[in-house]
Amino acid sequence: MFHSAALKLTTWYLLIIMVLSVGSSVALYHVSSSDLTRNARRQVIFFADQLEPEDFRDYTRLRQRQLNDDIANLRQNLLLFNIAVLIAGGAAAYALARRHLQPIEEALESQTRFAADASHELRTPLAAMQTEIEVALRNRGLTKAQAIGQLQSNLEEVGKLKTLSEGLLRLAQRSSEDITDSVAELKPVVKEAVARLKKAAAAKKISIDDRTNNMLIKGDPDSLNELVAILLDNAIKYSPAGSIVKVTSRKHGKLVLLSISDEGAGIPKVELPRIFERFYRADSSRSKQQAQGYGLGLAIAKKIAELHDGEIEVKSRSGKGSTFTLKLALVS
Ligand code: ADP
């Protein structure tokens, strides 16, 4: 599909180029050939008085032949020029068409992948629920207690599906329109995120040491709050009970660097490039077994950072904890 669209666009570009090129060549041909004819006529008139009638006839014939040759040359040169424009223009038009269509192709591909990934992830809890319900329905002697247990298990799966679909929705809905021209205060943004995760931290006896300085940053407070909450949530999820999660901030030129460090399991080096991918969960048995999640958090965080023209950097060593640093533009 992409190839035929590129060819179609190339044809249009080339058509425009050729209409301009042939049009200007025809105009040039008319102007130049009438110039050449006028010059020849002027010369013939000039020599009419100066030459003997015999010589003048020869000269006129010669001049006419010259004029015909000049015009033929002009025609040939213009034809060659247009062939060159056709070849070079065709190549340039194709390159341009590909360049223009590339982002559209990438966006389409990413949407298809998104839909495929999402339905794959949604299928797992749905399939689990379906099997459980089918087994329960086949059990004629199902007791009330068993039925309640079954409903509870289903409710758990429904909860997972809800979290997952909410995450997917958040990932799909974000757009740069939410961000343009907004300004946020860093300290309250972090404070609110810390407050959101207070319960989760308390449950693991993890203390959050928030040392954020106040600075004005370019961005939407709600989105940034969500971003910080995702990083804090991970720091808590992947840290042992009783550890400390530290939040610090500093200026670096026109940027603010907000770091969230934990004393947790860390992320193996090989996994680092992939953790921001949708649905990716580092393959350490710890993270998959103990901590709940769908591998969407960091994908959402990355998207929010990118919409702010910012980035997230991660430094981590297995068993030594991780530091996620968010870089955002300061309001100058
Ligand atoms: P989720 O936490 O739902 O699995 P994320 O996208 O938030 O998904 O994170 C992707 C993976 O990156 C996690 O599964 C985990 O393995 C790893 N990870 C993220 N943050 C940390 C952290 N602070 N410490 C250790 N591993 C982390």
Explain what you see.
The structure is a single chain. Helix 1 (2-50) runs antiparallel to helix 2 (53-138), helix 2 packs antiparallel against helix 3 and helix 4 packs across helix 6 (221-237). The radius of gyration is 36 Å and the shape is elongated. The protein has 332 residues and is an alpha+beta fold. The mean pLDDT is 90. Strands 2-4-5-7-6 form a 5-stranded mixed beta sheet. Helices cover 65% and strands 13% of the residues. The longest helix is centred in the N-terminal third of the chain and has 86 residues, at 53-138. Adenosine-5'-diphosphate is lined by residues 234-235, 237-238, 262, 264-267, 275, 280-282, 287, 293-299, 322.
Number of strands: 7
List the bound ligands.
adenosine-5'-diphosphate
Helix share, percent: 55-70%
Global outline: elongated
The main β sheet shows up as: 5 strands, mixed
Structural class per helix/strand content? alpha+beta
Detail the poorly predicted runs: none
Percent strand: 5-15%
Order of helices and strands: HHHEHHEEHEEHHEE
The chain-level mean pLDDT equals 90
State the strand order across the main sheet: 2-4-5-7-6
| Alpha carbon gap, first and last residue | 46 Å
What is the CA-based Rg, rounded?
36 Å
| Individual helix count | 8
Please sum up the structure shown.
The protein is an alpha+beta fold and 332 residues long. Helix content is 65%, strand content 13%. The strands form two sheets. The protein has a five-stranded mixed beta sheet with strand order 2-4-5-7-6.
List descriptors.
two-stranded antiparallel ribbon, 65% helix, 5-stranded mixed sheet, elongated, alpha+beta, 13% strand, 332 residues, binds adenosine-5'-diphosphate
